[in-house]
Amino acid sequence: MMGIGFLELLVIALVSIIVLGPAKAIDMARGAGKIMGEVRRSFSDLSSTLEPSKWDEAPESRDDRQKKEPDADGKAGG
Fold first, then answer.
1. Got the DSSP string for 6-54?
2. DSSP, res 72
3. Cα-flanking dihedrals φ and ψ of residue 67, to 5°?
4. What's the mean pLDDT in 18-41?
5. I want to staple 66 with a disulfide (CB 3.0 to 4.6 A). Which of 11, 35, 75, 77 is the partner?
6. What is the mean pLDDT of residues 1-5?
7. Distance between CA 15 and CA 8 in Å, rounded?
8. Side-chain half-sphere of 25: how many Cα atoms within 13 Å?
9. In the predicted model, what is the mean pLDDT of the chain?
């Protein structure tokens, strides 16, 4: 999670509770969680929109590629 450990998250949470107060800190955390969820959903939708053909076609095997590629003498491999 972005290189932040549990101890760092705990310190950030405690400082935010002290500075903002318990009620406001909880509201801020809830809002940040909603935003992160929306961003994740947006990126998921975007990636599925941009790469639909990646999952539609079966990958071509090495044997199939060798049959299509001509040899040095110009004949099809095989």
1. HHHHHHHHHHHHHHH-HHHHHHHHHHHHHHHHHHHHHHHHHHHHH-SHH
2. T
3. -65, -35
4. 90
5. 77
6. 72
7. 11
8. 11
9. 77
